[in-house]
Specification:
Helix content: 55-70%
Bound molecules: heme C
CATH architecture: Orthogonal Bundle
Number of domains: 1
Radius of gyration: 19 Å
Number of helices: 8
CATH class: Mainly Alpha
CATH topology: Cytochrome Bc1 Complex, Chain D, domain 2
Length: 139
């Protein structure tokens, strides 16, 4: 039996697109527009950034690494490297980050029950300060 070329395309193209979507992992997770616009009510003072750093080490470092740059599967046992949160913080608004951290997805837990939003805002201030430092706009 010979397979007609157009038919073969129908089989190959979806597989190709599927494998690309695997590469794009992490970028398809988008906060709803209303959540994205929420502004951080806590000023990014040195005190807030310090608090955020300490909270980050408690809540997040085990999966995202002490320096928030992501951990390899060999360390976490997950299928994928956890996201580099310095890069995520450069790409996302404070509202996006709050929504993702409170919602969770897959191995990323939801930090909503028992975690006051103020703790998350301090963590976001810490992550954003690292992102800005990296971009050279934060002294
Ligand atoms: C048990 C492991 C684990 C813990 C603890 C954890 N994360 Fe995650 N996090 C993940 C994984 C895995 C993903 C990728 C989820 C996905 O895209 O499916 C993720 C994704 C994220 C994202 C989305 C990144 C992006 O660019 O889309 C943010 C932001 C984030 N985590 C922040 C945090 C913060 C802040 C904490 C601590 C309050 C935390 N995470 C704790 C495992 C964890």
């Amino acid at each position: 039996m010979t397979i007609k070329k157009p038919l073969l395309l129908f089989a190959v193209v979806p597989i190709f697109i599927y494998s690309l979507s695997g590469l794009a992992w992490g970028h398809e997770w988008i906060a709803p527009p209303a959540a994205s616009k929420i502004e951080n009510p806590i000023a990014a003072t040195t005190e807030s950034i310090k608090t955020g750093y300490a909270l980050f080490q408690d809540y997040c470092a085990s999966c995202h690494g002490k320096s928030s740059q992501g951990l390899a599967p060999s360390v976490t046992g997950f299928e994928i490297t956890t996201p580099n949160l310095i890069i995520s913080s450069q790409r996302h608004t404070d509202g996006d980050l709050l929504w993702k951290i409170q919602t969770g997805r897959g191995k990323m837990p939801s930090f909503q029950n028992g975690v006051p939003p103020s703790d998350i805002w301090h963590i976001i201030n810490y992550l954003k300060s690292r992102a800005q430092k990296k971009a050279g706009t934060f002294k």
